[in-house]
Specification:
It contains 8 helices and 4 strands; from the N terminus they run ββββαααααααα. With 209 residues, it is mainly alpha-helical. Bound molecules: zinc ion (2 copies). One zinc ion (ZN) is lined by residues 2, 32, 34-35, 37, 52-53, 55-56.
């Protein structure tokens, strides 16, 4: 490609291939590699071991100067891709871990799991000391948070009421800790997942939206 030949000889005059394109009276010394026109020795310049006319040489020089900009852009894109890559790889496992715990806790903390209807019914029907055996049997058959609390109460029936209540409270705290297991991980994942999106922006020094 060659820029328009501004300020050169009027195009109406026939071009003599043996004379300089700029100076009709000067003999051709060579041909510009880019535009293919003939030029005298004064008009031709050597650039990167090849002969060019002044206009074509200037055009090439400008292209060369522009190159560092595009390479900087490529480098920036590469760095962003590098930074974003691991983040994307982090997003997938955190999503999977989060979802797994949500499902696992969702199943474990269902009302029927914590308070089985049969145990609830047995507790309602328990009116006298004779019914305690029935209640204990059902609690042992259907392990759950409520069943384990009732078994603690039944085991310590001979204890003073306050001490029995303490034993139940201790067991209840343990049950709550069991129920909350995994929720911390869900909270962490929920907390950091939106931040992961901002990491590539932070890496290139831009403040995230
Ligand atoms: Zn040229
Ligand atoms: Zn010339």
């Amino acid at each position: 490609m060659c820029p328009p030949s501004r300020g050169r000889r009027a195009p109406v005059a026939p071009i003599d291939p043996n004379a300089c394109f700029n100076h009709a009276t000067a003999d051709k010394a060579g041909v510009c590699l880019d535009c293919g026109l003939s030029f005298c020795g004064r008009c031709l310049t050597t650039f990167q071991n090849a002969a060019y006319c002044a206009a074509c040489k200037n055009y090439r020089t400008r292209i060369m100067q522009r190159r560092p900009d595009s390479s900087k852009l490529a480098l920036a894109s590469f760095l962003i891709a590098l930074a974003a890559g691991p983040v994307m790889f982090l997003l997938v496992p955190t999503s999977i871990i989060g979802l797994t715990f949500i499902i696992e806790r969702g199943l474990a903390l269902r009302w029927k799991k914590v308070i089985p209807p049969d145990v609830e019914k047995a507790l309602d029907l328990c009116r006298s000391k004779q019914d305690l055996g029935m209640l204990q049997g059902i609690c042992q058959q259907q392990p759950s948070a409520l069943s384990r609390l009732l078994l603690v109460a039944l085991e310590h029936l001979s204890w003073p009421k306050e001490e029995n209540a303490d034993a139940i409270q201790t067991r209840a705290r343990h049950e709550i800790a069991q129920m909350e297991r995994g929720l911390v991980i869900v909270e962490i994942v929920v907390g950091i997942a939106p931040r992961l999106r901002d990491i590539p922006a932070l890496c290139i020094g831009r403040s995230p939206r």
